Amino acid sequence: MKKLIAAASLCVASFSVQAAIVVPEYDVNAGKQIAETVCAACHGVDGVSVVPAQPNLGGQNVKYLYKQLVNFKAGYRKNGIMQSQVANLSQQDLANVAGYYASQAPWGVGFGNPATNQEATKLFLGGDKSRGIIGCAGCHGPDAAGNTWAAFPRLGGQHSQYIATQLKLFRAAGREDDIDSDDQKRANDAAKEGEKGMMQTVASKLSDRDIRILADYVSAVH
């Protein structure tokens, strides 16, 4: 419990340096129209993706969704496909899409790995003090449901492939790996460019095995 409290305190401190995320009043029906024409091929009309590399969005926290879309449009989060998809959308469009997907039923549950479940549970809930890793549950909750107020995303049931990819992108940014392409790093957890956010800091200490077992674990959490 002490580890969870400490981790939560660090997360709140990290979030407090960022400007509060305020989602404009949104129109779910307008968001659905955009989702059907722009987003559905990758994320599904109802926010359930059939492609493991693409995230499920249905029932995700609206602040998180809106922030990611704004970051893609501003180029703060790099991904060629997403940046091209939102290029012609207004801020209001982004809010509408975020609101629509957030209003959908949460996605289902994936499949974990029984062989690594105990090890992954310990890492997710309590971290690893010997390596300076805080538990994921401090920010994302013991049930991986996220934190709506702080715009921390729901992870439970998400595709393990997508989770693993994002952790590696955060790790590359946190370790300042010498990678030519910016879209091979993810640094939009920080308050501004040039700083390191919580996810970069945590992911920089994770091994490939850590990432694999955590991704499998959260995919099965519900």
UniProtKB/TrEMBL annotation:
InterPro entries in the cross-refs: Cyt_c-like_dom (IPR009056), Cyt_c-like_dom_sf (IPR036909), Cytochrome_c4-like (IPR024167), Cytochrome_c_Oxidase_Subunit (IPR050597)
Subcellular location: Periplasm
Signal peptide: 1-19
Region spans: Disordered: 176-199
Residue ranges occupied by any Cytochrome c domain in the UniProt entry: 26-105, 115-222
UniProtKB keywords: Electron transport, Heme, Iron, Metal-binding, Periplasm, Signal, Transport
The protein, known as: Cytochrome c
Organism in which the protein naturally occurs: Psychrobacter glaciei
Gene name per UniProt: cytcB
